[in-house]
Design a protein that fits this description.
The chain is an alpha+beta fold. An eight-stranded mixed sheet has the order 14-22-24-23-25-28-26-27, sandwiched between helices. Strands 9-10-6-5-13 form a five-stranded mixed sheet, with no helix packed on it.
Length: 789
């Protein structure tokens, strides 16, 4: 049923607002509403570190990549042309444009083509051909060699598994996929056997299967024993959250004894928005209309029309007919339109308030005269229909033979920032490697049998979907905390919360630098409160629920950094408490192992200048999640920044790779950082087996000295040293050895009077030197007396 409201009743409801005449001067106060600006990644020339801090304070969208040379810094940022003009006022200039919006869109097109190809492959019936099944014996052992081809083999997600009987025991192993110059050739494996099987069956995770007799291969292998058979390379395109979760569910179904899917309790806001339109092109005469219902729940069906009645002395009226809203604008005695934006807003809210809400443009007084116009409201979301708009359940893949909390836990989590498309691939590749190598690789079996491994492919699925289908450079989630003055559709790409600024340690709410709690459009907006976002609370829940987690890796891109806490400092550049000298030494020692594994793939070296505590190599990141895990949970927590710079020898300089490089490069990054994540898992395993207490030595030790001395400590491994200088028993509450300075070794103790120095050491595995117990009256701590004459 249609309803109307006249200008007479409007002035009765809102005295003084009526339909006053507006002068031409008032109407000219408004400015043209500018079209949306295109974005690009540019390299800024920043004069010094103070200017970099200014960038952070301004909320400029930094990419994580900073390169310092002398006092100046090259800083990559995501900016609009108007932001570039503003930066110039602060002496910050553009050095080079690196990636344009057109290039981002090209990445999306490439990814969509790959998805379509994979869908076509998956829809076809999978058939397996066994090309070769041979056994041979060389000078050292007998081997089984297999080549098989799948009709779906062009997709990296297609996995082939071999089964055979060896000495009455069924054996299984995964085959490696062989691709040459982009062409799928076949899957293969080569393994030592203790008895020659009569036949072998090759099956696909898509359902295909084939069996072949095993025949002898003539001649010896002149190259000797083959290398260890280790299967990898399971990703061939960027995957949205739906694909990631689908892959996870398939792995859980295929390996039920080793995998379970954890569903997080806090649902996201959802890939959904209100339907909106801004009607008008001038700031003080435009009206922003938003649906009350979500776009997909009817908001997208609403139309709004502002009509010129074509008659003189007409009142302002609003008519609502189902999902159609018609506003007949008021006219004066000469037939000229006289309804202001503020009047139209009030009329819409009064009579169409069950369907829409209306505001003036960004808090404008709305004194301009509204022109005739119309719009169909839209939520501006472009994902295909199979992508649900409802709140999502974030999922984690839990891998381990014993998933009951009895084994040490390792957490890898990705895509807090939506636009970082490579990072989820690191988790999926890692999961596939752990599961598909379990049956035949002894080292993998050790890791899976003795650890509890948690992998979250996408912490931020809503934002990720928005990045894939609507706006490539989306960093935040999709929760809009902006008020009415900032919630017009022109600001839609700025809404959301930076999930890596939403945590409760070292947050902007506590006065730390590197986030905003006032500007909801800032790229580092921390939200209305600490832990306001369900995605952040999910990470906290997982850590609370699984206290066995001892190690974590937060996977980001790009720039090729490897970092740990502290992650934030205050305006005086006072950081969160630094780790002890022993803890810092462990971070460095473990990092060396992990970074070596990254290098093994294609030689990528994470530079020393990009390795270390976050503020030392990048900038302050108030409220980041790794700080929460370290300071609140005692978890050794690192931050990957995948996508190290590539050396351009023709230009004699490093060149960036970006958030969404061509997949050929993204694939390589996923491979090398999956190496690194498995490297962290190996660190966790080695630490779990570490039962050897550290040993330490004070240098100099007991003795008499003519003047003050500097006492240093030699340690057998990375360990925290607790000490006293007054002869009392050292405990965990005693002073501990700290770093002598930023990126410097452990401090020395200056002894300038006769002192009894007592101490003990604790390594990262919790082993205490000499099995000393600081909690009772044990006396087997270390002690030296230094006599100063």
């Amino acid at each position: 049923m249609a309803t109307t409201i006249s200008a007479l009743s409007f002035t009765t409801l809102y005295p003084g607002l009526g339909v006053p005449a507006v002068t031409g001067a008032q109407q000219l106060e408004g400015e043209q509403i500018l079209p949306e600006e295109s974005l690009s990644i540019v390299q800024l020339q920043v004069p010094n570190k103070k200017a970099l801090d200014k960038l952070v304070e301004m909320g400029i969208d930094l990419t994580h990549r900073v390169h310092q040379h002398g006092e100046e810094l090259d800083v990559d940022v995501v900016v609009t042309p108007s932001e570039i003009e503003e930066l110039r006022k602060h002496g910050i200039t553009v050095k080079e444009t690196l990636i344009t919006e057109a290039q981002w869109n090209q990445r999306t097109a490439e990814r969509n083509a790959a998805v379509q190809q994979e869908s076509t492959i998956a829809a076809a019936e999978d058939t397996i051909k066994v090309l070769r099944a041979n056994h041979y014996t060389n000078q050292s052992a007998t081997f089984l060699y297999v080549e098989a081809k799948s009709s779906a083999g062009t997709s990296a997600s297609t996995a082939l598994t071999a089964k055979w009987v060896e000495n009455g025991v069924e054996k299984t192993a995964s085959l490696s996929r062989f691709v040459d110059y982009g062409e799928y050739m076949y899957h293969w494996m080569e393994l030592p056997v203790t008895a020659i099987p009569e036949s072998i069956t090759i099956s696909s995770n898509l359902g295909g299967s084939a069996t072949s007799a095993v025949t002898q291969w003539l001649g010896e292998d002149k190259k000797g024993s083959p290398k260890k058979h280790y299967v990898k390379d399971f990703v061939d395109h960027y995957m949205d959250p739906y694909e990631l979760y689908e892959r996870a569910e398939k792995l859980a179904k295929e390996f039920p004894d080793l995998v379970e899917i954890i569903e997080m309790p806090n649902k996201t806001n959802g890939y959904r928005r209100l339907a909106q339109a801004t009607i008008g092109s001038v700031t003080n005469s435009a009206v922003v209309v938003s649906s009350k219902a979500w776009g997909h729940e009817g908001g997208n069906d609403i139309t709004v029309e502002f009509k010129n009645p074509g008659k003189s002395s007409q009142p302002l009226t609003v008519t609502v007919d189902d999902s159609k809203v018609i506003v007949d604008l008021a006219t004066d005695s000469s037939g000229k339109l006289i309804s202001t934006a503020s009047q139209v807003v009030s009329a819409l809210n009064s009579k169409a308030g069950n369907l829409v809400t209306a505001t003036t443009y960004r808090g404008n007084t709305g004194t301009g005269i509204v022109a005739a116009g119309s719009a169909k409201l839209s939520d501006n979301l472009n994902a295909p229909a199979h992508i649900a708009r409802e709140p999502q359940t974030v999922k984690a893949i839990r891998i381990g033979k014993h998933r009951d909390g009895s084994k040490p836990g390792v957490l890898g989590y990705a895509q807090e920032h939506a636009r970082e498309w490579v990072t989820p691939l690191v988790t999926i590749e890692t999961a596939e490697r752990l599961l598909r190598n379990y049956a035949h690789d002894g080292e993998t079996k050790q890791l899976v049998n003795n650890l509890d491994i948690f992998l979250i492919p996408s912490v931020n699925p809503d934002g990720a979907l928005y990045s894939f289908y609507d706006y490539n450079m989306q960093r935040k989630n999709m929760t809009n905390h902006c008020g009415p003055t900032q919630s017009d559709p022109g600001n839609r790409n700025g809404w959301g919360v930076d999930l890596n600024r939403n945590h409760s340690v070292g947050s902007v709410f506590d006065g730390y630098v590197g986030a905003s709690n006032t500007n909801c459009l800032s790229s580092t907006y921390a939200g209305p409160a600490e832990n306001s976002e369900p995605e952040s609370r999910n990470l906290i829940w997982l850590a609370d629920k699984n206290p066995n987690i001892k190690f974590a890796m937060n996977i980001h891109s790009y720039g090729g950094y490897f970092m740990w806490s502290p992650g934030a400092y205050n305006p005086k550049r006072e950081t969160l408490p630094r780790p002890t000298a022993g803890q810092e030494a462990f971070y460095w020692a473990a990092s060396n192992e992990i970074l070596n594994d990254i290098q093994d793939h294609r030689g990528t070296v994470i530079l020393p200048s990009r390795t270390g505590p976050i503020p030392d190599v990048l900038y302050s990141a108030a409220g980041n999640s790794a700080d929460y895990l370290w300071y609140e949970k005692g978890i050794y927590a690192w931050n990957f920044e995948v996508g190290a710079d590539l050396w351009d020898s023709s230009r004699n300089r490093w060149s960036l790779v970006g958030f969404q490089p061509p997949f050929e490069e993204g694939h390589e990054e996923a491979m090398e950082f999956a190496n690194g994540l498995i490297g962290l898992i190996k660190v966790a395993y080695n630490q779990s087996k570490d039962k050897q207490p550290p040993s330490t030595k004070a240098v100099p030790g007991n003795g008499t000295f003519q003047g003050p001395v500097e006492v240093a400590f030699e340690t057998s491994e990375a360990a925290t040293i607790y000490y006293t200088l007054d002869g009392t028993r050292p405990t965990f509450q005693s002073a501990h050895l700290r770093l002598s300075g930023t990126r410097e070794p452990a401090e020395t103790l200056k002894i300038d009077k006769t002192t009894v120095l007592n101490w003990f050491a604790v390594d990262a595995a919790g082993n205490i030197e000499k099995s000393y117990n600081p909690l009772n009256n044990s006396a087997n701590f270390n002690s030296v007396k230094i006599t100063i004459k």
